[in-house]
Design brief:
188 residues, mainly alpha, 0% strand, elongated, COX assembly mitochondrial protein, chaperone, Cyt_c_biogenesis_Cmc1-like, disulfide bond, mitochondrion
Length: 188
């Protein structure tokens, strides 16, 4: 019979066995039970359980959020390694081996698919913030354009052509391709 094997990225077999075999103390058991009882906060999150694929630049933004979250979880280990490595060149790999292993172990422990999913949810939750920022930038640009047009007395057709260019450049954010035809355009 074939068994289903789950592949965990960024975790070596030796380190995953080490983490699974760690003895559980009464204090950690009570902490885990308390964490299981607390409800998770409601998030805006992903639009559906099977969201449309993101573009390469959007996936890069998700990856940046993921890496930042992992680095935030391992900040103490990273600082310890950086303090050890400061002023060293060739001898870093020998002198700071323990700090380097602690840092890598922490990052492997926290770089999980669940953390990547949380980073993706955070990216989707920030969509509204990015949309508000684009609208604010668009309004500021329109006000500056109007001021310059009035100041220099530019003709109306120049203003309209620039406005069309700006609308093309700063269109709505697309997730998974073109927006639906029946979806109303924002601001209309």
């Amino acid at each position: 019979m074939a068994e289903a094997v789950r592949i965990l990225p960024l975790i070596s077999p030796a380190s995953s066995v080490h983490h699974r075999c760690r003895p559980t103390t009464p204090s950690t058991a009570s902490t885990m039970a308390a964490m299981a009882d607390t409800p998770k906060p409601e998030r805006l999150g992903v639009p559906s359980r099977n969201p449309l694929p993101l573009s390469a630049s959007q996936e890069a933004q998700v990856r940046d959020i993921f890496y930042a979250r992992v680095r935030k979880n391992c900040a103490d280990e990273i600082k310890a390694f950086a303090a050890c490595a400061l002023g060293r060149t060739f001898s870093v790999s020998f002198a700071c081996r323990a700090e380097h292993r602690a840092m890598n172990g922490c990052m492997m422990l926290h770089a999980t698919p669940e953390e990547h999913d949380a980073a993706r949810e955070e990216w989707f939750a920030m969509r509204l913030e990015r949309q508000r920022k684009r609208e604010h930038d668009r309004n500021v640009a329109a006000a500056q354009e109007e001021f310059i047009r009035e100041w220099w007395g530019l003709p109306e057709d120049v203003r309209l052509s620039r406005q069309r260019e700006m609308e093309k450049r700063y269109g709505e954010e697309r997730v998974g391709g073109m927006p639906a035809k029946d979806r109303p355009a924002p601001g209309r």
